[in-house]
Amino acid sequence: MVAMRNFVAAVKRDEAKVKTVAHKAGCAFKRDAKKVGAAVKCDEVKVGKAVKKTYTKAKNALKKQK
User: Does pTM top 0.70 for this prediction?
Assistant: First the structure.
């Protein structure tokens, strides 16, 4: 009887450990996804600024030629 209780307690402890590890892994994955998303947005902004800068330079060059 005591051995059975010890076994059940050990199984419950193991299940709790598995849930904890899975939760931590999920949180880490979400953090990484947020970092990737932020980096992509940052890159999009940089590309947008570069395009705008190039367009403005070209437009100004055309104005000077006229």
Answer: no
Q: Which residue has the tokens 């330079």?
A: 57
List the chain domain ranges: 40-66
pLDDT tens over the chain, length 66 residues: 777 788 888 888 888 888 888 888 888 888 888 888 888 888 888 888 888 888 888 888 888 876
3-state secondary structure labels for all residues of the chain: CHHHHHHHHHHHHHHHHHHHHHHHHHHHHHHHHHHHHHHHHHHHHHHHHHHHHHHHHHHHHHHHHC
